[in-house]
Amino acid sequence: xxxxxxxxxxxxxxxxxxxxxxxxxxxxxxxxxxxxxxxxxxxxxxxxxxxxxxxxxxxxxxxxxxxxxxxxxxxxxxxxxxxxxxxxxxxxxxxxxxxxxxxxxxxxxxxxxxxxxxxxxxxxxxxxxxxxxxxxxxxxxxxxxxxxxxxxxxxxxxxxxxxxxxxxxxxxxxxxxxxxxxxxxxxxxxxxxxxxxxxxxxxxxxxxxxxxxxxx
Length: 216
Description:
With 216 residues, the chain is an alpha/beta fold. It has helices spanning 14-25, 40-44, 57-66, 70-80, 90-93, 201-213, and strands spanning 2-7, 32-37, 48-51, 85-88, 98-99, 105-106, 113-117, 130-138, 153-159, 161-165, 171-176, 180-187, 190-193.
């Protein structure tokens, strides 16, 4: 049995994520143990990791850092052992170098880039936060997870900031909201979605299933 861990650091939509992941895990041919945890020891034994996130970038980073040895365990398992990792919303943004939501804060610096405010045009047409269903468009990418994705799919977004990677190739899908908005990032064993797959009905469940099936 393989282990998938959802990290509980007080900043995520945990119940919905757990439900959605457990649902798709039950449909897999391979058995999965899905655990929501704040114990770094569980991270060190995980085969795959999901980091959700809802709220303010700096607060989420602070909450993650408050758990003793959590960031160290993540660094070991994700960066050193290169197991598959999925960040959702702010969980995706935390992979960046810095976040500029209000005051600046350092991220995990796993994917070089910054989290900056949305600035759609015209301002009177696009409300902030960006909230609702939007279509994603795939960008040409050699990343292995791209082969699991389908173009022109609608997902559910709730955010005011987005992740702009230094390397444009790390952004493998965008959505149009008065500007090109990063929808999916991918770098080596790490992927992240600005949208919430757990709130995106069938499309979101399909993406979560793809994450379980993804082989690096």
